[in-house]
Amino acid sequence: MHSSVFNWSSLKVEPTKMGERRGVFDAPTPALEELEMHITTLNPGESPHPPHRHAAEELMIIKEGTLEALQGGQTNIVEAGGIISRRRTSCTACATSARTARPTMC
After folding, report:
1. Which 8-state DSSP code applies to residue 89?
2. Could you tell me which residues are beta bridge partners of residue 15?
3. Of 7, 10, 36, 60, whose CB is crowded by the most CB atoms within 10 A?
4. What are phi and psi of 102, to 5 degrees?
5. C-beta separation of 30 from 1 below 8 A
């Protein structure tokens, strides 16, 4: 993957049953076999998936809204501008409250 710029308005929106997704890139880099980025917007009260373990590290930036993030058995409330870092193989989950605005995660 080369150095690039990705404008929000040019990212294709794909509706999902829990909100929407925007794929940004999925490509090798000089340092990594694979680097993938997508943006997920969840509808209120939705979760992208049940608790699970990732084979790779994960980094999420909350662009807007509020998210409940489960890590190590503890639920944390993450607001706009917050960052979630997840190590490989840790059990994790995310969900929105039925009361919150639609959070967008990058």
Report:
1. T
2. 20
3. 60
4. -65, 110
5. no
Question: Is 38:48 a contact under the CB 8 Å cutoff?
Answer: no
Strand partners, 37: 25
pLDDT one digit per residue (tens) for the chain, 106 residues: 889 999 999 999 999 998 999 999 999 999 989 999 999 888 888 887 777 777 778 888 888 888 888 877 788 888 889 998 887 766 666 666 555 556 665 5
Q: How do the domains of the chain map onto residue ranges?
A: 10-105
* Phi, psi of 31, deg, nearest 5: -100, -20
CATH of domain 10-105: 2.60.120.10
Backbone angles phi, psi at 100, to 5 degrees: -85, 160
- DSSP one-letter string for 30-86: SS-S-EEEEEEEEPTT--SSSSEE-SS-EEEEEEESEEEEEETTEEEEEETT-EEEE
